[in-house]
YbaK/aminoacyl-tRNA synthetase-associated domain-containing protein
Amino acid sequence: MRAPIGEFDTAVPAPECLDELVAPVADAVRHWRGSVPADRIVYVDTDPRWADTAVFVEHYGRDLLGTSANCVVVAGKRGGETSFAACLVLSTTRVDVNGAVRRRLGARKASFAPMDTATGETGMEYGGITPVGLPDGWPLLVDAAVADLPYVLVGSGRRRGKLLIPGKALAELPGAEVIEGLGAA
């Protein structure tokens, strides 16, 4: 199979390589629902040494810069209670944590979750967190620019490998809410 975006040696429909994914991501692919069939989610094998965006696009194709998205975990606090959300924005932008995210969570204060919290809560590796397979009940805030793309490059749950997913499918994930301007330049 040829990857729909980028220049990858290995591209496989995600349902055919569940053993390459961490448990929560594999479970989400296994029980996939939505208007986009699960076999349109493509797993591409990548070297973890090139996981960071700038190095990644140099190695796998500069055209990926405009189609890659970062998934970050945000913690919102209000009255001693902490709630979590995942935010998905283009890698060329930053999450508007203190504006759009804080308001959406109804939090007094919002910040990026510490690495050990983000990985512990999601069951995914830092640098590979993906919107597929997030904990039940978590809001997934998706920037409208991500949802509009034909295909988006996101983490696979590990630093090795990425998923290529239609933007429409990301907007249909459990807990997803598409927000204009979630990512700021």
Remarks:
- Helices lie at 23-30, 53-60, 97-105, 115-122, 144-147, 167-171.
- The chain is about 25% helix and 25% strand.
